Structures are given as C-alpha cells and as structure tokens.
Amino acid sequence: MTYQGACHCGAVSFAVDDTPKWLTRCNCSACRRFGALWFHTHPVNFTLTAAKDATIAYVWGDKLLAFQSCRSCGCTTHFSPLEASGGMAVNMNMADPQSIKDIPIRHFDGADTWAFTD
Ligand SMILES: [Zn+2]
Fold first, then answer.
1. Which of 74, 82, 85, 89 has the greatest number of C-beta atoms within 10 Å?
2. Within a domain: residue 93?
3. Residue 5 CA, ligand 1 centroid: distance in Å
4. pTM for this structure?
5. Which whole number is the average pLDDT over 42-47?
6. CA of residue 51 to ligand 1 center, whole Å
7. DSSP character for 33?
C-alpha cells in the first residue's frame, strides 16, 4: 500500500510504501506537542519530495532521531534516524483522513513506561 501526505502549505510532501498494522499516538514530551500520528516504517519505504532547505530538523535528548518539519508552515512531517540502523516514522496526520480511517490507532506511553497502554 502506498500512502501520500503533505504539510499544510505543500512545500513538503511524501509517499510511504508500506502497510501499517497500526498507527501510534505517543504521549512523550515531544510527540504530544507535535500531535503526531506515527506510522513506523523503514527509511527505504519513504520518499520525500521537498526542496533541500524546505525542512528544519529538531534534535533533542539522546540524539537518536531528528523531527523534521516544514520551514514555512511548521507541520512536523516525519522523524528520521540519526544512526544507520535506526527506524523512522511518518506523521499520518499529513495524509488524507480517508486513506487512514481503517487503520487501528495504538497508544504508546513514551512519557513513562515505554509500552503500549492498550
Ligand atoms: Zn509547509
């Protein structure tokens, strides 16, 4: 399955070619503020369409990943790994709601126990 999404202004768009078992809402200090709905996948499945300077990266904590957002409209589109072995996730709130309406949503307690709560 291929899913597509874009930030609000359209400067950053993406396609992800993978089939999620679920999408993840995480309550950690970063994700709850971004309001992201994560589709975890491998970078090989992800195609980003954006000018080189269209995104800004936010790195914090243990510096294992970078949250990527549109420099113009501010939407967080995905996070990318800073280590070669790392995974990534795509913010499916950037996708057409109709395209994701049948995918279950799981809640991840990234703030505390680092486990799913459902
Ligand atoms: Zn934008």
1. 89
2. yes
3. 11
4. 0.94
5. 95
6. 11
7. H
